[in-house]
Amino acid sequence: MSQPDWRSWGVHPIAFLMPSMTEEEYRGLRDDIAANGQRDPIERFEGKILDGRHRHRACVDLDIKPDYVNLPASTNPVTYVISKNLHRRHLTVSQRAVIAVGSTAALKLEAKRASGKQVNWEDLLPKPPLTLQAIQDRTLNANLQSPQVTLKNPEVADLAKAADVSVRSIRQAQVVQNKAIPEVAEAVAKRDVNIARAAQIATLPVAEQPAALAEAIAQTGTQKPRATPEEKAAEYDEAITSLLQALEPFEKECGKQLSRKPRTGTSSMTLHETTARNVWDAAKALRGLPKPKRVQLGGACI
User: Fold this and answer.
1) Residue finishing a domain among 171, 203, 222
2) Number of H-type helices and E-type strands within the chain
3) pTM more than 0.85
């Protein structure tokens, strides 16, 4: 059987776990390929594009036959896409949280595929926009939702670490996944609203969500609305999480150095040992901080 022309290659549904580039980002990529050539090959899985759909689009626009590789059937396509893109692209905290929670359904399908069972990857594709009639018809409510995601606390912690976000952001993304109309998650992917605002919208009745989403997007497009206490608390959590993750390698190294030589007093420690102790103590103090709902920062209670 003849292979399809490279211009008509389809995109694997798992690729859509990652948000599409903005038109500005795409034009920058296309211009770079036009000037410097294709730097990274397009990677295909099961005959479809798994990684590189924007590079493929640019090559079609430029009429340049792309370089590509076919990944082996043993590849875990879900973890492959996430590991290649989650930190390579400039994704926001909100986008990373939605991707992490959204990947759970894909991981379950991959587990079935790995066990030899048939799977339908098309189930992962975004649902079409809702009609007004569908929104008003509460009897269709169950059919409007994305696959429900149930996460235990250890799973939430693992997802938060993998996506480099806070547990709070993962929980908010879970609310969006389970309760929001598809357009809400799409707005997060497009950076029109953040995950905290999206989670608030998701708690509304389905019929009220479109108007609330439109209002949130309008506010984002004009001026940034005043952050709610929940949003400020989420920012605090993100700051602490990011700081701890940045400190982690230093914390481990400092722990090793301090274990080699007992602490006998600051006066007898070298400058290097004193710095190691300070980093160790600071990280330990941060890890012991509670995560209160209201935190005093800069004179403002949030």
Assistant:
1) 222
2) 13, 5
3) no
| Measured CA angle at 157 (ends 181, 197), to 5 deg | 35
Q: Distance between CA 23 and CA 57 in Å, rounded? A: 12
Same domain, 18 and 82: yes
Task: Give the residue from 105, 103, 179 showing the smallest Cα distance to 142.
Answer: 179
Distance CA(230)–CA(236), nearest Å, equals 10
Give the span between the Cα atoms of 297 and 275, in whole angstroms: 27
Residues 128 and 28 in one domain: no
94-150 confidence digits (pLDDT tens): 888 888 887 887 888 888 888 888 888 887 765 544 444 443 443 333 333 455 677
Domain boundary pick from 176, 191, 222: 222
Q: How far apart are CA 142 and CA 86, in angstroms?
A: 30
How far apart CA 53 and CA 65 sit, in angstroms, is 14
Sorting pLDDT into bands at 50, 70 and 90, what band is 246?
Answer: low
Indicate the residue type of 86: L
Q: Are both 201 and 165 inside the same structural domain?
A: yes
| Separation of alpha carbons 145 and 177, rounded Å | 8
Q: Are residues 120 and 200 both part of a single domain? A: yes
- Surface-to-core class of residue 80, CB atoms within 10 Å of its CB (0-12 exposed, 13-18 middle, 19+ buried): middle
Rounded CA separation 192/225 (Å)? 12
Give the number of domains in the chain. 3
Q: Are residues 36 and 128 in the same domain?
A: no
